[in-house]
Design brief:
11 helices; 332 residues; single chain; mainly alpha; 3-stranded antiparallel β-sheet; 3-stranded mixed β-sheet
Length: 332
């Protein structure tokens, strides 16, 4: 069949697909690229994600907030009130977060172009209902077996690093211009802050740095929230599990031995979640286990990285510790 693919999901940044052998001399069986269609899909998914993240910001990251105190649940008046009060904050959050996600995905995508690895453009995933952040990230579909070990390392690491280049300035502005959303719910949603935000606050606003250990949605600026989500995405993707970005990095560093790093990381993550009674990442860990912890082989597993890449690669594995809050969301 023309569209028969064996697919492996490789985390927020990638979807690797390998096509079974076909008779390329038969035009009916030869692969038929559909660049225009996939680019149209990518465009409309990006628009939908901008709108869903905009609504997340308008609703103060509690999507049901406008209806909480409404007597008539079918009335559109609460939506109108929230839009009038928070449209600017929603726009700040949406554009700030999308800038981080676009930078992250372009980091991957530009490298696939440089290395001539067939891939789709970034496909953003909107999440407009009951999501405090309005999105589930983005994916890129890349043909498996077309990149060697060194190229996989570069493609995997380029996304998180490019995202951080944008996330840090967004966070700095969000901390210095700490104006909270105008219209917020009575019940606060408290977000634990990652170490990187706490360090930035200690440097930028030392007199109030203690306020950045935990920040409620009623007190957070939209750009601080955008940076918080951007760091969370970066940290989760840099977990050295299977085919996440961090899994690509450890595969580049260790080759097939990266499987044991993934096993250790998974055991550590589950142990911490049980100890701290945090279930927010349970679905992600289940998906990672279903995808498999073992990274698929590259086109050339023997290609060495070189010392500079090894130094950067090992150093990058600290990003989950710096970017993932120890307790991301607490209902106050």
């Amino acid at each position: 069949m023309e569209d028969a693919y064996q697919q492996r999901y490789t985390g927020e940044g990638f979807l690797l697909a390998s096509r079974p052998p076909v008779d390329t001399e038969d035009p009916k069986l030869a692969p038929q690229p559909r660049p225009r269609r996939i680019h149209r899909i990518a465009f409309w998914l990006a628009i939908a994600t901008i709108l869903s993240t905009f609504w997340a910001g308008v609703s103060a990251w509690v999507p049901t907030m406008p209806f909480a105190n409404s007597v008539n649940q079918s009335s559109l008046m609460p939506i109108r009130q929230a839009l009038l009060a928070n449209w600017y904050g929603g726009l700040q959050f949406s554009l700030g977060l999308m800038a981080i996600l676009v930078a992250h995905e372009l980091g991957h995508y530009v490298l696939t172009i440089i290395y001539k690895v067939p891939s789709t453009p970034p496909l953003f995933i909107p999440f407009p209902f009951y999501s405090p952040i309005g999105t589930m990230g983005a994916v890129i579909m890349m043909q498996s077996g077309s990149a060697d070990r060194k190229q996989i390392f570069d493609i995997g690491l380029a996304g998180p690093l490019a995202g951080l280049v944008v996330a840090v300035p967004v966070l700095i502005y969000g901390i210095l211009d700490s104006h909270p959303i105008s219209y917020a719910p009575d019940e606060a949603l408290v977000m634990g802050q990652p170490l990187l935000i706490q360090w930035l606050a200690t440097w930028l606003v030392p007199e109030s740095a203690a306020n950045y250990i935990e920040v409620a949605n009623t007190e957070a600026s939209p750009l601080l929230m955008a940076g918080w989500v951007g760091l969370l995405v970066t940290g989760l993707n840099m977990m050295p599990l299977g085919q996440l970005d961090g899994g690509h990095v450890t595969f580049g560093l260790l080759g097939p031995k990266s499987y044991w790093v993934a096993v250790g990381a998974l055991v550590a993550a589950i142990s911490y979640m049980l100890y701290a009674q945090i279930i927010i990442f349970s679905l992600m860990l289940v998906l990672v286990m279903l995808m498999g912890l073992r990274h698929p082989p590259s086109s050339d597993d023997s290609r060495p990285l070189g010392l500079p890449r090894q130094i950067v690669g090992w150093g990058s594995l600290i990003l989950p510790v710096l970017c993932i809050p120890s307790n991301p969301i607490v209902l106050a």
